[in-house]
């Protein structure tokens, strides 16, 4: 049986994992797809570099066109990352009828529409299971497992770095800077952690999930993002005391085809299954009108988990090749994208205020909430051990963001409020 | 566009859900598959019975052959349950080139091989996502999401009735009989609960999951089963005190192609993600050599969750019809089934002994473990508040079942041991 030849763009951590699985599971894979799978060529930056796995010299190249122009290569697996020249390579590979498997969330979030259109035109597959939540097959689940349902909410812990940091802060009562440094030393955070800690990485993944879950073309600019870098350890202590864990959640919601997608630090009730997802693990909670609550949990990154998803995509591509149906199973968004306004976005809020410790303050503050039609779930006033102010902790019922913004504006003008120390979304 | 016609065998709870989704999500479904989906005919026991949904009279029939012999029906959805005449109907429908979607775990566990062989011969699809863990798309996940990996362990809470009972016993300290009665009143347990509480229902589901996960033909007789009816509330209290929750787990394991599948009450460490799966929810934990730890959580039963899985299968069938590739994506087990012997099955054990309260007893008992090469993780001896005996609680390290059996046999002959009060597997 003629082997299927794979061209690998990139041989970093994930690329190495792909080679390991394709070689190590050769027999099992061949039993499933009906042919051997061969690594045909591998693009690397430096062919002379020493590596943790052996790849024969004649398979290595520093020139991507050796792969893209090779008519023997059936499938291109892209694990080099970045936007350019990666996008050009993928577009050109598709132009030459090669199927593409990629782990590149940035590329799919930014240029997914164009890439998928080219693939459709050329009857090629473009699969990207590994681009979101590493080893968790969440893209398949949204596309196929829940194809019959109307998904109304997707909440994800989709960035392992920030979940590691927040878990550590919660478990050890440690501060953000301290834990970030530790994460950097352990290799869980990059030297420049901006993309992770400011929520951009999570935002890209949420744009991908929302597009698939809601059948509308959600792009990165549609995602409102707030990162974790300003979370204080006191906030996490407060959260725990009230029965919540602080998590960086991506939250995509739909109501009557109106969509909102945000990434923000969120206080999650400990009774919610997302609250106990700790360390570098990822989890995606999906709510469907018919199915109800579901959650998918697993490793969000790493050599072998990510490679598992890539090779599962490769298996799917090859099965389609055997059946002659490549490029015909992609989901094309068929709904117009309508974004919710601030009036339509509603959630529960946690607010911590420092106020003057004198009579009538609480009455003034609760009056502001009443004025903008925000009802309160709980209010606690307590003396502040560190200074003469008092602390007021408020948890609201569901309130529109528009109304909450008015509350905050009004607070700016209230002289009894010294400062709005913290404000977080609350879920669960 | 010509509509796809579905024949529905059964209009109970789940069948009603299927009609609701097919009708309620008509537009979304048509956008995905490219044609309208119509309920063409429905088999019921009594056409004159009043129902919670309206189905036009002319679609109802009491004669299955009106569906099986109808050349207009493309897909048969079987939600009537039972083995006969259901199996005959499915085989005959396949013989006439109709695709089949079923929620019938009993039928797939007992006759799956024969049904799949017929489907393959006739180039028809047989899908059964709803047969295991209701709304959780675990069958797709094993077949496609993890197609690249070597799965070595599948642990499932796959029976909602028993999980409800054990959760209640744990949360309220209540006894088995009491909670079972309550579950029966709430409709979570049947009048004759044997199939659930004795683990048979879970065993059928584990046979299906092990077959898919391990690519070997695991049948119901290969599953060792022990139910929950003899669990005492004291056992659960002990478990909690030691940091465990009692769960009825299905556990399928593979090591070097040697397989074991069991269903048994298991003490699960509270640190394990399965420990916090409560009530009627289901969850399946999957360990793959490459991906590592994953878990899939959701509703295990119910009208709409189960119908979600059935209609997702229906969507897959119809997409295959459009591409002309039905019957070509099934996984055929390609590995010989080799069952582990008692020497090869190993796990940690919890043992509660009542012993004479006198000097040297503990030494005698620990000597027995040593003799059969079972090493101990922890041993606690304490006075028994209720009688003059002492209680000894032992947790072993991994020990082969063969050796543990020898330990228990030896214990029978030790006069200082009054009784082996409890013995459970320990996980996590």
Structural commentary:
- 2 copies of one chain form a homodimer.
- Chain A is an alpha/beta fold and 428 residues long.
- Chain A folds into 3 domains: 4-134 and 303-323, NAD(P)-binding Rossmann-like Domain (Rossmann fold); 138-299, Dihydrodipicolinate Reductase, domain 2; 346-426, Alpha-Beta Plaits, CATH 3.30.70.
- In chain A, 36% of the residues lie in helices and 27% in strands.
- Chain A contains 14 helices and 18 strands.
- In chain A, strands 7, 8, 9, 10, 11, 12, 13, 14, 15, 16, 17 and 18 form a 12-stranded mixed sheet that branches. Chain A has a 6-stranded parallel sheet with strand order 3-2-1-4-5-6, sandwiched between helices.
- In chain A, strand 5, helix 5 and strand 6 form a beta-alpha-beta unit.
- In chain A, helix 1 (13-24) packs across helix 12, helix 5 (105-121) packs parallel to helix 10 and helix 13 packs antiparallel against helix 14.
- The radius of gyration of chain A is 24 Å and the shape is elongated.
- The model of chain A has no long low-confidence stretch (mean pLDDT 95).
- At the A-B interface, helix 1, helix 2, helix 6, strand 12 and helix 12 of A face helix 1, helix 2, helix 6, strand 12 and helix 12 of B.
Helix/strand layout:
The structure is a homodimer of 428-residue chains.
Chain A: E1 4-9, H1 13-24, H2 26-33, E2 37-43, E3 60-61, H3 65-68, E4 75-78, H4 86-95, E5 99-102, H5 105-121, E6 126-127, H6 138-145, E7 151-157, H7 160-172, H8 176-186, H9 194-197, H10 200-214, E8 223-225, H11 233-241, E9 244-255, E10 258-269, E11 281-288, E12 292-299, H12 303-323, E13 338-339, E14 346-355, H13 361-371, E15 376-383, E16 390-396, E17 399-400, H14 401-413, E18 417-427
Parallel strand pairs in A: 1-2, 1-4, 2-3, 4-5, 5-6, 8-10, 10-13, 10-18
Antiparallel strand pairs in A: 7-9, 7-11, 9-10, 11-12, 14-16, 14-17, 14-18, 15-16
Helix pairs in contact in A: 1-12, 4-5, 5-10, 7-8, 13-14
């Amino acid at each position: 049986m003629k082997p299927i030849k794979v061209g690998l763009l990139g041989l970093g951590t994930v690329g190495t994992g792909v080679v390991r699985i394709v070689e190590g599971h050769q027999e099992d894979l061949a039993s499933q797809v009906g042919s051997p799978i061969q690594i045909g060529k591998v693009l690397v930056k430096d062919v002379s570099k020493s590596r943790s796995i052996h790849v024969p010299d004649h398979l290595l190249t520093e020139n991507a066109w050796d792969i893209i122009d090779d008519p023997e290569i059936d499938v291109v697996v892209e694990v080099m990352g970045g936007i350019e020249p990666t996008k050009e390579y993928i577009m050109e590979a598709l132009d030459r009828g090669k199927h593409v498997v990629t782990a590149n969330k940035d590329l799919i979030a930014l240029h997914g529409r164009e890439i998928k259109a080219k693939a459709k035109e050329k009857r090629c597959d473009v699969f990207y299971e590994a681009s979101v939540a590493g080893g968790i097959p969440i893209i398949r689940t949204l596309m196929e497992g829940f194809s019959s349902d109307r998904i109304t909410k997707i909440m994800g812990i989709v960035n392992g770095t920030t979940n590691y940091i927040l878990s550590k802060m919660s478990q050890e009562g440690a501060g953000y800077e301290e834990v970030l440094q530790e994460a950097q030393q352990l290799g869980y955070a990059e030297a420049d952690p901006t993309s992770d800690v400011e929520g951009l990485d999570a935002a890209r993944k949420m744009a991908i999930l929302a597009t698939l879950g809601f059948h509308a073309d959600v792009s990165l600019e549609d995602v409102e993002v707030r990162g974790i870098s300003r979370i204080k350890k006191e906030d996490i202590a407060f959260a725990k005391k009230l029965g919540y864990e602080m998590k960086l959640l991506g939250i995509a919601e739909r109501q009557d085809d109106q969509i909102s997608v945000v990434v923000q630090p969120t206080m999650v009730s400990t009774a919610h299954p997302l609250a106990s997802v700790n360390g570098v693990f990822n989890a995606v909670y999906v709510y469907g009108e018919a199915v109800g609550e579901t959650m998918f949990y697993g490793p969000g990154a790493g050599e072998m988990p990510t490679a598992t998803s890539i090779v599962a995509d490769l298996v799917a591509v090859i099965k389609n090749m055997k059946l002659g149906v490549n490029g015909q199973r992609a989901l094309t968004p068929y709904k117009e994208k309508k974004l919710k306004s601030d009036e339509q976005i509603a959630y529960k809020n946690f607010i911590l205020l420092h106020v003057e410790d004198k009579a009538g303050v609480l009455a003034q503050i609760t009056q502001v909430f009443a004025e903008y039609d925000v009802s309160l779930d709980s209010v606690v006033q307590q003396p502040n051990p560190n200074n003469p102010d008092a602390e007021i902790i408020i948890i609201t019922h569901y309130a529109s963001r528009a109304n909450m913004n008015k509350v905050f504006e009004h607070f700016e003008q209230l002289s009894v409020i010294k400062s709005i120390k913290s404000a977080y979304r609350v879920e669960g």
